[in-house]
Here is the input.
Amino acid sequence: MLNLLHLETFAAVVEHRNFRLAATALNISPGAVSRRVKVLEESVGAVLVTREPTVTPTKAGEEVLRHFMSVRLQEDTLLRHIMPGRVGPTALALAINADSLATWFGAVARELAQRHAALEIVVDDQDHTLDALARGDVKGCLSTERKPIEGFLADPVGQMRYQCVSTPTFASERLSGGLVLPDLLGVPAILFDRKDALHDAFLELRFRVMPGSYVKHYFPSPAALLNAILDEIGYGLVPAMQAEPLISSGRLVALAPGHDLLVDLYWHHWEAEPEPLAEISALVVDRARRSLIQADRN
Here is the structure.
């Protein structure tokens, strides 16, 4: 049986990405941290972390980390049954794309919090959330990646629909001829950040070619991005859940009716989940499928 103290130390090293910071968090010496990790590596017969250039779990390390997380989750559940009301909430880190968090995932977060979870939501572009799961930073993630990494499953949860919008004034002054290349290349677009590939995907879908460089502003939050469009800084892609009420009220106009962008999302989770995580995955998948567009996958 693996030593829980050694597992806890290893998990701290992975969490902090640094032996010295892990030692500070555990209130022990850096030498003690190194010794515990080395003994654990000897116990499993494999290197668990790469030390250079940064501390990163190896494949074996990722599996050991998931084992430790599973043990802790099951321990929390057991103690909560034995000592109801005397056990604190279970720490739960999930990687969620910003647009889901700004729309449908808020209700899921409230329900998770009511289930004795101390949430840490790691926000990233939907094309990059899988990195956090692979590193062991989170216990589940929403991603556009269809193929799961080894040891995980990817459940399709639906499509998020995006509409290309601007204010009516911006459309009449800057896009009077509609979305037409090459005129569009000089009109500022509002993107989330430099990793945001949605706008490129939309332009390629709309024009069947990659338009090349165009003017961009970056506003790295869904609320800021939407406000930038409403403030007539530019035009951009907004989740239909946010855009449609504003289109109905006349504050926004759809610039490309019939050319909405549909983005497939998948819930990635452990293949062998302990009961608490399995319940959480079931909840996320159920709520996502109720909120997102369900395409015919046959």
About this structure: The chain has a mean pLDDT of 88. Residues 1-62 form a domain with the Arc Repressor Mutant, subunit A fold (CATH 1.10.10.10).
